Amino acid sequence: MKQGDNMYEKLIKKYIPVNGQEQIDQKAMLSFIEHNKDCLDRTNLSGHFTSSAIIVNESMDQVLFAYHNIYDSWSWVGGHNDGESNFLEVALKEAKEETGINNVYPYDSEIMMLDILPVKRHVKRGQFVGHHLHFNLTFLLIANTSDELSIKPDENSGVKWFKIDEVLDYVSEEDMKEVYKKGFDYINKCKNQIHN
Question: For site-directed labelling of 100, which of 35, 55, 106, 137 has its Cα 20 to 30 A away?
Answer without folding.
Answer: 137
